[in-house]
Amino acid sequence: MLKTSSRAARRRRSTRPIKFWGIFLCVYALVLIYPWVRIDTLMGAAWQPGPVTYVLLGAGPMLVRFTRERLPRRIGRELSLLCMNWLGLSFILFVFLVLFEPLNLIFSPSPWQAAWALLGATALSAAIGAMNAQMIGIKTIQLRFPKLCDNLRVVQISDVHIGSRRPGLLRRIVDKTNALQPDYVMITGDLIDLPHISVDELRPLSELAAPVDYVIGNHERYVDLDDIDARLRQLGLTVLRNEETATRQFQIIGIDDADDTTQVGTQLSQLDLDREAFKILLYHRPAGLEAVAEHGIDLMLTGHTHAGQIVPFNLVVKRVFTHVRGLATHGPTTLYVSPGTGTWGLVIRLGSRSEITCFELSGQS
């Protein structure tokens, strides 16, 4: 009986990668290939691209993803941006097609007119989303913590994604942040998402007019993490890697991003936490809130979700994370999930806003 159970468990483990990639490829084909096949069918174009063209169309972004580091840096970056925005357009068109197909069965509009209406709606949505993605709002949140001795202004920046976004975005972020006159600036990961982003491209960070604490996100792990760590330290940022640091007013804890759901609790149990001090935890993703509360953290700052970035993708994000944006509390801990200061991949936001968050923290006085 034990041998049979063991063999069944091994079979289940061995089939998991097959199931995962099967589902992934089906979703990938639906989003990236089906929309254009459907538009081509509706238009009834005299020239039919054929299966080879569609396979290349779908495989293009994946090929760029796996070969960009072998290409000249500028070419690799531009191709990556082009492919990600193509993926974004395909996703928007796919959403409109999901809405269109039931209506098509009921009303049977002209296929040619329907195709152009779908393309027009996609282009208009992408244009609105692209303009929205360029806007960076300032959100001010007032919180009171009796453990604080002084009033503080802390600014959170998250998910800038230099690589997907051009380095010039940093200049705008730094100028807006300095205008807030913060006491501290805290960056909660995914500052960078492509390899070989140079110190010169990141140099505006050195002009932030307050001490800067930074923790890594998942995208830094995917690229040249050790080099990113060194570049940011060179620019004067405090990079917290599963460690804590103390200021006169409070204790700051930074934990490396990880896919392991026990990461936060495990790392906090290994750190020297001051139970009496006001404590701020920086962690990239909104996970482990219960463990954070058990360790007496007062304020947890996270990002990662982008608030979905594009509707209806926010519905998918909500299936993964309990808290997708904004404030939440659990026991003594207040959690804030930033919707992100930049954008990942495509430079489009629909149903969400880019944000620099300003926390006005008041204490006993």
TrEMBL record:
Residues 152-307 form the Calcineurin-like phosphoesterase domain. The chain crosses the membrane at residues 20-37, 49-67, 79-100, 112-133. SUPFAM superfamilies: Metallo-dependent phosphatases. Keywords: Membrane, Transmembrane, Transmembrane helix. GO terms for molecular function: hydrolase activity. InterPro entries: Calcineurin-like_PHP, Metallo-depent_PP-like, Metallophosphoesterase_sf. It comes from the Bacteria. Pfam families: Metallophos. This is Calcineurin-like phosphoesterase domain-containing protein. It comes from Entotheonella factor.
